[in-house]
Structure formats: structure tokens, C-alpha cells
Amino acid sequence: MEKENIAVGLDIGTTKIVAMIGKKNEYGKLEILGVGKSKSLGVARGVVNNITQTIQSIQQAINEAENNSGYKIKDVVVGIAGQHIRSIQHSDYISRGNAEEVIGGKDIDMLINQVHKLAMLPGEEIIHVLPQEFKIDGQSDIKEPIGMYGGRLESSFHVVVGQASSIRNVGRCIQSSGIELSGLTLEPLASADAVLSQEEKEAGVALIDIGGGTTDLAIFKDGIIRHTAVIPFGGNVITEDIKEGCSIIEKQAELLKVKFGSAWPGENKDNEIVSIPGLRGREPKEISLKNLSKIIHARVVEIIDQVFAEIRAYGHEDPRKKLIAGIVLTGGGANLKHIKQLVEYITGMDTRIGYPNEHLAGNSDEEISSPLYATAVGLVMNSIENKTQSAVKFETATVPEKVSFKQERTFEPFDVPKPIEEPVFEKVEDETKEKEVETVFKSESTETKIRRSFFDKYVDKIKEFLDNAE
């Protein structure tokens, strides 16, 4: 009997850490076996700033996922984001010794290794080298060069660069949590795998992932990644503004945003008021929903303007670079009421909310279909591509199903119990839910093979660094 390919993704966000265990079912869909979620302590704007607290939060999420699934996690694919990420376009070529020999994988590897020798700013490292179109002896627009003849092999590359120290800090947190790091993926690329269809990538689409600390952007055209960017603010700055503007505590501000917030102030009437309990016997506070929406609107407009500036920098006004499929919004921020309408109004582009449910098995928990889990679902899909056995069943059946996490907690100093009024995002109806979808897990393209071979080397490099640092 063939061994199950159990995959694990770990999304280390600014507001939450999600560990997700899944496998591919017989229909090629993703079956989620267990999910663990913990409040993210020690991460700011996608970057680890407190190792100890981050380790505690990772261990909580891992424990919960293991208890819910009955599987023991061995290694994970982790998402990389943060304000230190930037991307550049670069072209390079190699001259082949024998033009009569067909081009093979080793030629592409040689070309990619050459790009890795690019001079970076001090303290920066290349995370991804993603080939775009190839050119052979002057013949352009070649997507699959393997098997062709030619003396000069050329390609344009999308190179993603990040701060080496930030990447190593993530590696250190994973290793100290008692698990191995099997791969790194840029978070907007993981989210794109989870919520975008191949047709959208071909037509041209901008994916905007609004997280707690960062807003990630990935632009695709002709099926190829064209532009990525990380904008260093997200949903947390909206909460911060509500807290300051309404003179309330952060927990109340977050609940207000989730339950009553709207990105479109015209929706609320002047007499709509919500009462907030006062602190320690103080008088309750009355807050006008119109004012609340004005605060949210101002900050969301700022975020969308920044993202739209990046889309313009890519050159979407050029007819050849036109994004026919418009914008797809995902991440926790996509649950904000009327954000779709506001984005359409600011950008003039068709917009939809991106749910990861297209790739999930039919019996999946409805909560996992939320845009909130798009990155985690994408990371699990990435882990499945790596064909690693990332988790194994517990040998003994002593772990009861769905253990209450309170019984499992062992990290008292940094442990944050689940708040009673934990914000629950309302489910937005997905218009495309009933549509027939194509098979998700495509055959491996040259790009995925290349990405994988590079990841293996890169992860080994990080492991070696961490081992030497012991």
C-alpha cells in the first residue's frame, strides 16, 4: 500500500499562527486533517521580534493541530513575508558548449545558479528565483525550453529578496519548537496557489492579501508571476485607529471592527449607535457606527492606494500588461464589510473575494473556507508538491479526539487563553462556490521543479547555518 503523503503548512502571521495538516484525497482535492491556531506573540509586521514568544505561539498551534488530527508533525513548509521583502526583475543567459545537444534540466539549473550570484545589498539574500519567459538563440516567448536545441539560453527572472537575519530567525523558531523546516514560500505566492484559478493567472490578476501586519501583493499575467510586493501595514493599523479615535481598549476596537465595521461610511445612518461597556465600573461609551466607518474607510483607502501604486508600477495601463481578471482580495482583511465595493471604486477594476474552497474537499469545515486561512491552505498545497512525509500517525491511540487545548497548555508565562469574545469573521457568500472547478493539482511545470530544487538547497543552507550556530 502506498504511503500517505501528509503535508503540513505553518503560517506565521502578525495576529495569528496557523498550523494546518492535510493530504490529497482520491479526487485530487485537499482534505484538511487538523488545524491549530494561536495568538501570534512576538511577530510584528510579518517579522519575528521576540524569539521566545514566537516559539511559544508556534508550539501552541502545533499542539492543537496534532490533537485535532491524531498526527505527529515532523516538518513544515513556512510562509515568509514582512516589510523586508522586495522583488526585482533580472535577465541572464548562458552560452552552451554544444548547441547540437538538447537543452536539459542541468542547463536551467546552471542559469538559475548564475542568478543566485547576483550582488545583493548587505544583509540581503535571494529567497526565490522564478523564471519567466525563456529565449533560445534570439527566439523569444518560450515557456518550456527543455528538449529544444540552441547555443544561447536566456531568461527573464522574477527575483524575490529578503533580509537574511529575518529568514534565519524564522528558521531558529521552527527548530527550537522541535520540528524541521522543509521549505520556504513567499506568502503571497502561497495565497495565490490557494485562491486563484489558472484562467485568472493567464488573463492577468492582482492578488491582494490583507493580513494583520502586512498587505501582500502578487500580480500574474500569462500564467507567470510578474510582480510581488509587501506593504508594511494591514488590519492592525485599522484597529489601532479605532482604539485611538474612540478611546477604547484594543480588544474592544477589534470586536467593533469585525462585528460592526464597514469600509463604506454611507451605509450607516447617523442614529446607529453601539454601546461599549466602561472599564472598572465606568459609564458605558456610545459610539456612532457612522464615525466608526469613517475611521475604517480612511485607513482602508490608504492601504488600497499603496497597493494600487504597486499595480501601476507594474504597468497595468499598458494594453499588453492589462489585468483582465482584475483584483482578488483575500486574508482576514477581506472579511471587512463593503471592502470589495470600495476597492472597485478606487481602482476601477473588477474585484472578488478569494476563498480557498476551490481546492478543498467537499466535506471541509466551513471555517477553513474563510479568506483568513488562504495562506495556510496554500502552504499545505506547497508541502504536498514537495512530496514529503511531514506528519505520522500517533503510535498509540491515547490522544483523545479534539482535546480541549486548555488541558494541553504547558507554556504558562506566554500563554494567552482564548478570549471569550474572540472575533469571528462573518462568512461572505461566495458567488463562485457552486461553479464547476477544474482539477487543482496540475502536473509539475518547469517552474515548480526549479523552485523545488532551489528550495531544497536553500533550506539545507539555513539548517546548516542553524546547526553551526548551536
Strand and helix map with partners:
Blueprint (H helix, E strand, L loop, with lengths): L6 E6 L3 E9 L5 E10 L3 E2 L2 E2 L2 H19 L1 E3 L1 E6 L5 E10 L9 H12 L7 E13 L2 E4 L9 E12 H13 L3 E7 H9 L2 H6 L1 E6 L4 E7 L2 E8 L3 H12 L3 H11 L12 E4 L8 E4 H26 L12 E4 L8 H9 L3 E3 L20 H12 L5 E3 L11 H4 L37 H24 L1
Parallel strand pairs: 1-7, 7-12, 13-18, 18-19
Antiparallel strand pairs: 1-2, 2-3, 4-5, 6-20, 8-11, 9-10, 9-11, 13-14, 14-15, 16-17
Helix pairs in contact: 1-3, 3-12, 4-10, 6-7, 6-8, 8-9
- Tell me what portion of residues adopts beta-strand conformation: 25-35%
Major sheet strand order: 3-2-1-7-12
DSSP, total strands:
20
Number of helices: 12
Task: Summarize model confidence as the mean pLDDT.
Answer: 83
Residue runs with pLDDT of under 50 for 5 or more positions: 396-446
The N- and C-terminal alpha carbons lie at a distance of 40 Å
Q: Which structural class best describes the helix and strand composition?
A: alpha+beta
Q: Rg, please?
A: 23 Å
Give the helix level as a range of percent: 25-40%
Shape: globular
